Structures are given as C-alpha cells and as structure tokens.
C-alpha cells in the first residue's frame, strides 16, 4: 500500500483560514468528527490539520474523487480484518483503521465530505468557507462539487466582492475568479482605507490592479454621462440620443413655473448646444457623481427624486410626461455607462 497521505502535496495552495488549534503549541489528541462522519463501520479515517478524525467509507469517497480513489488503491480493511497499530509501511492506524492525514481544516473537510456523500449541501457562510471549499474540490478533483461551486461563485462574489477578490488573488490560476470579483466590485465604492479581513491574503499588486480597474471604470462611466467638449458648455456624449423629444429639453410653455432656470448643454450626437432644465443637469451631475464612486452602482430612487423636482417647474402637460421621459433617458444613459465600463480593459497581472 502506498502511504495514503495527502499531507505532502506541496503543489496545492495553502488553505486560506485554518481552524485554531485547541491548545497552542501542544500536540492534541485526535477527536472524532460530528455525525455522520463518526460511525464505527468506517473503513478509513481522514485526519485533518486540526486533529479531527473523520470516519468514512472508502468506496463513497473513491466514487466522488479520483484523488481519494488513488489513495485507496490498496485493499481496504473490512469487518474482521482489523490491523495493528503502525505496521512496517509506517501507515498509521486507529482502532485498526488506516488514518490519512490531510492539510485541510476540519471545517473544510466536513464541507468536502458532505459533497462526496449523498447529503444535503452544507452552508458556506463566509468567503473563506466558500473559497476553501472550491480549493478542496479542485485539489481532490471532486468534479460535481467544483462545477456547482463555480456556478455559485458569481452570486457569492457579488455579496462581498473585495473579500472574494482578495481570496482568489491568493490562489494561483484563479484569474477568472479574480475577474468575476473585480467586476462585481464595480457595484460598490472602492473606499480609501477600507480593509476586508480577507485582504490579509492579498498582495499589494493585486490590490493596485483592482484599484486601477475600479478607477478607470469610474472615470469611463462618469464620462459616458457628462464630459467636457470643445465648447465651454458641458457635453452630453450620449451616442444613442437621436432627438430632443424629452420634456426637459423643450418645456417653454406658458404655464410653466415662472422662475424656471435652464442651462446650456452641448449634445454631441446632434452637434447642437441646447437649453436643458437646470434640475435635469443636477440629475446628470448626481448620476455622474454616483458612478464615479461605484461605476455600476444601483441608481435606486434618483430618477424618481429628480422627476418630482422637475414636475414642480414645468407646465402641466410636461409635468405629466416628466417621469416617463426621465425613465427613457436614464435607460439610454445606463446602457451607455455599461458599454463604457465594458470597454475598460481588465488586466489583473503584469
Ligand atoms: Zn411644458
């Protein structure tokens, strides 16, 4: 029997977050895992880095994982075939069952084994739990687990993008996962001085690449809303704006609010300098400020707030249309923002 150990697998990445040892600096006696991994009918023990023994069935693990299958390429012990402690091949036994030592924590091994066994999927409450599970799925080649976790990754990453980005950057070859998290990070501000706990695993260059990408996307997004043109007036760069059939460009009717204020704006697509309601310019500036913080931020209630403000200054007829017109225009703008952000190269390494 080849020594069935995974503890000397130097090619795998270190686990991201280990469980704390029970007694600092002292060798602890192995303790048994929770059910269902503590059954006496087991024919192999997986011993984790934090000294927890998982009693499992070789056949089940071998079906789920080719790595486990290779480890178990020896005749299994069965009932009535118990072996003695430490035989010539230096294989460790407990209760006559071979022990395999692994580098994973008991938390990660519990998750991995629950995917191998026909059990309910375990919860993955923290970014570290999720990424450790994906690391283990890849290391032990549990294909269905890897496929499932890869499918779940974008949704999980969108909840804590910076944490997932940091953890992905600590693994070699996780470029796709880094990119997914970097794109998800565009929905939230990149706050100066903010430190997610998982960022201690991230090196400085990974941090800088994300910061640059976020900043470039923010600049592109803001410029898609308002920018500077050849004239002294702000430039509306929207390439899909084929006409000015929106109330905020055209309300000049008799019953409008008498103190109506307008600004001038250069409409790039039509190459015209036109009047626009000042509240609408405020709206555009508010949107530009928002995307400058988080390029793909949710604009939440902003269209509604400014539509109401606009309705107070315009004629009765235009006031009725302002909500729909702001909505139509905002759709064009947000499409332009997405396009501008998509055009920013996502380069996360030299
Ligand atoms: Zn009007």
UniProtKB/TrEMBL annotation:
<protein>
    <recommendedName>
        <fullName>BTB domain-containing protein</fullName>
    </recommendedName>
</protein>
<feature type="region of interest" description="Disordered">
    <location>
        <begin position="73"/>
        <end position="93"/>
    </location>
</feature>
<feature type="domain" description="BTB">
    <location>
        <begin position="42"/>
        <end position="117"/>
    </location>
</feature>
<dbReference type="InterPro" id="IPR000210">
    <property type="entry name" value="BTB/POZ_dom"/>
</dbReference>
<feature type="compositionally biased region" description="Basic and acidic residues">
    <location>
        <begin position="15"/>
        <end position="30"/>
    </location>
</feature>
<dbReference type="InterPro" id="IPR011333">
    <property type="entry name" value="SKP1/BTB/POZ_sf"/>
</dbReference>
<feature type="compositionally biased region" description="Polar residues">
    <location>
        <begin position="1"/>
        <end position="13"/>
    </location>
</feature>
<feature type="region of interest" description="Disordered">
    <location>
        <begin position="1"/>
        <end position="41"/>
    </location>
</feature>
């Amino acid at each position: 029997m080849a020594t069935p150990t995974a503890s000397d697998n130097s090619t795998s990445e270190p686990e991201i977050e280990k469980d704390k040892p029970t007694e600092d600096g002292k060798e602890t006696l192995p303790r048994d895992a929770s059910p269902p991994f503590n059954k006496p009918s087991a024919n192999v023990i997986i011993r984790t880095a934090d000294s927890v023994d998982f009693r499992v069935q070789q056949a089940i693990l071998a079906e789920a994982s080719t790595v486990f299958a290779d480890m178990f390429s020896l005749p299994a012990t069965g009932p009535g075939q118990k072996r003695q402690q430490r035989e010539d091949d230096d294989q460790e036994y407990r209760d006559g069952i071979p022990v395999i030592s692994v580098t994973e924590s008991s938390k990660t091994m519990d998750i991995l084994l629950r995917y191998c066994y026909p059990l309910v999927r375990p919860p993955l409450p923290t970014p570290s739990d999720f990424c450790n599970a994906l690391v283990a799925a890849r290391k032990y080649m549990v294909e269905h687990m890897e496929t499932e976790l890869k499918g779940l990754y974008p949704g999980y990453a969108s909840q804590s993008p910076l944490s997932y980005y940091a953890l992905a950057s600590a693994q070699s070859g996780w470029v796709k996962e880094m990119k997914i998290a970097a794109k998800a990070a565009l929905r939230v501000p990149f706050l100066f001085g903010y430190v997610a706990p998982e960022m201690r695993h991230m090196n400085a260059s990974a941090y800088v690449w994300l910061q640059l990408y976020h900043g470039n996307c923010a600049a592109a997004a803001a410029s898609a809303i308002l920018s500077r043109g050849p004239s002294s007036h702000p430039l509306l760069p929207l390439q899909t704006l084929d006409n000015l059939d929106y109330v905020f460009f055209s309300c000049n009717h008799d019953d409008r609010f008498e103190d109506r204020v307008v600004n001038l704006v250069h409409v790039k697509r039509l190459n015209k300098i036109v009047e626009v309601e000042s509240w609408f310019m405020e709206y555009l500036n508010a949107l530009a400020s928002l995307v400058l913080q988080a390029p793909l931020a949710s604009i939440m209630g902003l269209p509604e707030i400014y539509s109401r403000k606009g309705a107070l200054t315009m004629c009765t007829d235009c006031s009725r249309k302002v909500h729909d017109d702001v909505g139509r225009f905002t759709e064009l703008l947000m499409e332009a923002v997405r396009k501008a952000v998509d055009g920013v190269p996502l380069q996360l390494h030299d």
